[in-house]
Amino acid sequence: MASVTLRALEKRYPDGYHAVRGVSLDIADGEFLVLVGPSGCGKSTTLRMVAGLEEISGGTIRIGDRVVNDVAPGDRDIAMVFQNYALYPHLTVRENMAFGLTMRRMPRPEIDRRVAAAAESLSISHLLTRRPRELSGGQRQRVALGRAIVREPQVFLFDEPLSNLDAKLRVQMRAEIAALHRQLAATVIYVTHDQVEAMTLGQRIALMNHGVVQQVDAPLAIYHRPANRFVASFIGSPTMNFFSGTVSDNAFQVTSGGPRLPLNTAAMPAGPAVLGIRPEDFVASMQGDCVPFATVTLDMAEHLGHETLAHFTLPGGGPAIARLPGDAAAQVGHRVDLAVRRQALHVFAADEDGRRLN
Amino acid sequence: MKEPRSITLVRHAVLLVFVAVSLYPVLNVVSISLRPGNRLRSTDLAIIPADWTVASYVQLFTEQPFLTWLWNSLVVSGLVTLTGVALASTAGYAFSRFRFIGRKATMLAILTTQMFPATMLLLPLYILIARLGLVNTWLGLMIFYTATALPFCVWQMKGFYDTIPPSLEEAARIDGCSRAGAFRHVVLPLATPGLVITALFSFMTAWSEYIVAAQVMQDEAMFTLPLGIKSFQASLSSQWGLYAAASILVSIPVVAVFLALSRYLVNGLTLGSVKE
Ligand SMILES: Nc1ncnc2c1ncn2[C@@H]1O[C@H](COP(=O)(O)OP(=O)(O)OP(=O)(O)O)[C@@H](O)[C@H]1O
Ligand SMILES: [Mg+2]
Questions:
Q1: Which CATH number is B57-273 given?
Q2: pLDDT of residue B271
Q3: What is the pLDDT of residues B114-136, one digit of tens each?
Q4: What are the φ/ψ torsions at residue B243 (nearest 5 degrees)?
């Protein structure tokens, strides 16, 4: 196994589009790193550069202690699982899994041993003589995984491997990939745009937007201390509520006569800023560690059973959502006294970058 | 659902008419080839005449240079097929996968050559071949045929490669193949139906062509089969028996090639490899 190091990685496509801008990442030996971000942010491009399928416009990529910028994909000792599986249609499952080993002229008995072992661990032993078109989507995904495993590569690359599966299968495969990682102790770079996958699979998450890495951290650290407004809004569902206002001595004043929330403003410049509160950090009754927020009138209440999503609008502000317990008696038009957990106040700069201030 | 009997009957009647229309000329030629002497017209309705004989066939091989013509045709058609497949499979791949300067222009230029009927190109191409000193040679005819068959074949192969997902090649390259290796181990096997169509088209272009061959091949020893057959039809006395017998023999390799290759013309070979 090996670490992967990206330094100031750049990608400009021939049409001039600047898809990846100065990405630097250190992925430790055996680490599971998830690359997440909205569609078109450059995740796949980054991954494909690591794989060697896309030329690098600038920067360096190291696998272990070898710079692989100009190394052919087949010589990088990596395996990749594609979103569309990319199984060879003219070969059987067995041949698909053995292909990479055959190309490397591995002795036949060793190939057979590895294919059998991988097929066993993925429970696809009974499918070895079939062709890809005779498999279900989930089975194809397993074969694609198997093709990667038998290679015993230094690094596994996944590009949205689960996005073509239905919801139930996705949960199951997610668990299997996590188990696989524990078992192989391999270095993994996993691309997804699904925050649940990112939060559950990743030991660390690298969040990208517009070709730039926004934050790299453990999932809960990203959740609790998002580095900027973009990260804050990307992780969490429903998404974080934002209220503009001003920071002044030890308080945040929401604009147009909104609530005034006590806050340690020692490290913050006074002036306009944006307050972020996650829907789940609102409570409908005052508790010890909370500060009063506002009394709001509900525009809508979505009862989901285990929770109730209460939609409201602050005067002069945009729509916001509070996540209340499932048994909350909230209805449209009801007035609710909302409080907010004291440690759950996120303050961001009011400019475009929206850097975290507290 | 079962269809009414009357519809079934009508359908079969219509199909039988088509069968009759397509079979009649062939059976007629068979019949002529089996008649003794040189009888083109006959009042006899039997397909196999009462006094049938294979004399015409025997004569083709013993008294006529039929075998020489067959050899000429086989060599020219075979080589045209080989060059056609080799060039179309690679050129089509380049047009499908690589983005290079002049790609669009070249593709359009190739297409433009198809706009002119072959007869219109006859004179300039003849002059070309004459200047090259290739009159009466296999090579001269091959150049002509390859040039006329290639544009269609290149476009055809390009269209075929377009349907093969690039991620298959990428997977192969990660699995240790070079670009060429991925082409050989993954793309070519998947493009088999396209290659077969290209091969058939190239072969047919060369095998049954007459007008161009009549210009390039002027020596009887260099005749291809269509020229040879036509030579039986002289202005004063046509040898219809020989003509018919040779026609039958000429069509046999074509049928054989079709039968041999048709099993590769299966559809949906790439089905199930990727999910879009
Ligand atoms: N071959 C190409 N030529 C030009 N631009 C490209 C090319 N491939 C991708 N791009 C652009 O680069 C940007 C990043 O693409 P990329 O595929 O890395 O996105 P992504 O983060 O993987 O998105 P998704 O979640 O939709 O897969 C996109 O805006 C895309 O339009
Ligand atoms: Mg992508």
A1: 1.10.3720.10
A2: 42
A3: 787 777 888 888 898 899 998 88
A4: -55, -50
Buried b (16+ CB within 10 A) or exposed e, B215-244: bbbeeeebbbbbbbbebbeeeeeebbbbbb
Q: Which residues from chain A sit within 8 angstroms of residue B97, using beta carbons? A: none
- A323 reaches B (C-beta below 8 A): no
Structural domain for A39, as ranges: 4-230
**Residues A116-166 pLDDT 10s:** 999 999 999 999 999 999 999 889 999 999 999 999 999 999 999 998 888
Q: Please say which residue of A182, A209, A230 terminates a domain.
A: A230
State whether A121 and A179 are in the same domain: yes
- Least Cα separation, residue A350 to chain B (angstroms): 41
Question: What confidence score (pLDDT) does residue B115 get?
Answer: 81
- Residue A330, amino acid: A
Q: Report the alpha-carbon distance of residue B77 to residue B71 in Å, rounded.
A: 10
Residue of A nearest to B173 (CA): A74
Give the residue from B177, B188, B195, B273 with the most A CB atoms within 10 Å of its CB, the best one to mutate: B273
Q: Which of A230, A265, A280 is the C-terminal boundary of a domain?
A: A230
How far is the C-alpha of B31 from the C-alpha of B59, rounded, in Å?
A: 17
- List the single best residue of B174, B264, B275 to mutate versus A (max A Cβ within 10 A): B174
- Does residue A173 share a domain with residue A130? yes
Q: What is the pLDDT of residue B272?
A: 44
Structure pTM?
Answer: 0.85
Question: A173 CA distance to ligand 2 centroid (A)?
Answer: 19
**If DSSP codes are grouped into helix, strand and coil, which group holds residue A267?**
coil
What is the ipTM metric for this complex?
A: 0.87
pLDDT score for B236: 65
For residue A90, the chain B residues in CB contact (below 8 A) are 186, 189-190, 269
Q: Which residue has the higher pLDDT, B53 or B169?
A: B169
Does A113 lie in the same domain as A19?
yes
Overall domain count for chain A: 2
